[in-house]
């Protein structure tokens, strides 16, 4: 199988880290696929033109990181997403919160990439306020995931790393030291050291 990916995509990084955590590197090749280049290999399997996309040996390609991670989690017996009950709901909720934090960070970055005279401060303020609220909520709810080794915790750690990449001026660690400790533990894992995005 092939995972079409980009080294700076946090959504792809979730999938790449999960592959490593589950020891599936021999089963899934990670293929660097810059989505903004509109490569034919990507567009032929995902008309949305987004990464990640997982090309399987049989069946249609899978798109959207939650779906891809669900599939990856079925490939061996080690479960990172619980199969049933409230534990599954909590992990999927954490994944959704993490994805939303990534979305806010990307929205802010896109707005700031506009020429200065075309930026909308209203949107920048909105994205930044959402990021602040989400960090505060994660800090208050950290007991649900801070010692977990599952896909919810992995997703949150990836989202915090993405803040460092795209919103480096935000000193989130000072305001949220418990989250900083949580992130530090995940950053030391091989799945994170191997998928560290390049500085841009």
- In round numbers, the mean pLDDT is 97
Approximately how much beta-strand content do the residues carry?
5-15%
SSE order: EHEHEEHHHHHHH
**Helical segment tally?**
9
Query: What is the gyration radius calculated from CA atoms?
Result: 17 Å
The termini sit apart by: 29 Å
> What low-confidence regions span 5 or more consecutive residues with pLDDT below 50?
none
Biggest sheet strand order reads 2-1-3-4
Q: What is the global morphology?
A: globular
> Helicity level, as a percent range?
40-55%
The structure class reads alpha+beta
Largest sheet: 4 strands, mixed
What attributes characterize this protein structure?
alpha+beta; 9 helices; four-stranded mixed beta sheet; 4 strands; 200 residues
Commentary on this structure:
With about 200 residues, the protein is α+β, with helices and mostly antiparallel strands. The protein has 9 helices and 4 strands, in the order E-H-E-H-E-E-H-H-H-H-H-H-H. Strands 2-1-3-4 form a 4-stranded mixed β-sheet, covered by helices on one side. Helix 1 (about 10-20) packs parallel to helix 3. The longest helix is centred in the middle third of the chain and has 28 residues, at about 85-110. The two termini are about 30 Å apart.
């Amino acid at each position: 199988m092939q995972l079409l990916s980009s080294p700076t995509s946090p959504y792809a990084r979730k999938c790449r880290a999960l592959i490593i955590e589950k020891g599936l590197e021999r089963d899934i090749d990670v293929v660097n696929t810059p989505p903004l280049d509109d490569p034919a290999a990507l567009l032929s399997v995902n008309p949305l033109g987004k990464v990640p996309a997982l090309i399987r040996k049989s069946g249609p390609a899978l798109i959207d990181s939650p779906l891809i991670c669900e599939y990856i989690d079925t490939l061996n017996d080690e479960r990172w997403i619980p199969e049933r009950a409230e534990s599954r709901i909590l992990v999927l909720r954490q994944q959704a919160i993490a994805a939303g934090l990534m979305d806010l960070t990307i929205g802010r970055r896109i707005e700031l990439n506009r020429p200065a005279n075309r930026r909308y401060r209203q949107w920048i303020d909105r994205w930044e306020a959402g990021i602040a609220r989400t960090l505060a909520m994660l800090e208050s709810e950290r007991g649900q995931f801070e010692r977990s080794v599952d896909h919810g915790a992995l997703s949150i750690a990836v989202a915090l790393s993405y803040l460092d990449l795209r919103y480096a001026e935000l000193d989130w660690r000072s305001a949220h030291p418990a989250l900083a400790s949580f992130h530090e533990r995940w950053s030391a894992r091989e799945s994170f050291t191997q998928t560290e995005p390049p500085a841009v």
